[in-house]
Design brief:
Layout: H1 3-37, E1 58-62, E2 65-69, E3 71-77, E4 82-89, H2 98-112
Antiparallel strand pairs: 1-2, 3-4
């Protein structure tokens, strides 16, 4: 083995050690997040991928690709042009939001005495 190959191998070993340290640090951080929030479960009860900085947000498809965010919903009284209930969901499928939106609107109306 020549000196040049030996030094390259040494540099590769240093890079691997740095990568291992970085991966262990990330694994520790993910472990803390999972310990605090627990795993995030999808509709079928299976664990889904989540974001360590915002565990309630979700990956959603848009016309510009996939983004990490929320799906905002608003229920409006068209006669009086008033928002009756609004909520942000960490799930992209709108049809799952109808039930919680109706419950929220009902609670808001009851709180107003309407």
């Amino acid at each position: 083995m020549t000196k040049r190959k030996r030094s390259r191998t040494f540099c590769d070993c240093q890079k691997f050690e740095i990568d291992i340290i970085r991966l262990k640090k990330n694994a520790k951080r993910i472990g803390r997040v999972l310990k605090k929030h627990g795993p995030r479960l999808g509709r079928q009860g299976k664990e889904v991928k989540s974001n360590v900085t915002d565990n309630e947000s979700a990956n959603m498809m848009t016309s510009h690709g996939t983004i990490q965010g929320y799906n905002g919903q608003a229920l409006v009284d068209s006669k009086h042009q008033v928002i009756v209930h609004a909520e942000a969901f960490g799930e992209g499928q709108d049809h799952y939001h109808i039930g919680p939106m109706m419950v929220g609107a009902k609670e808001n109306m009851e709180a107003l005495g309407v």
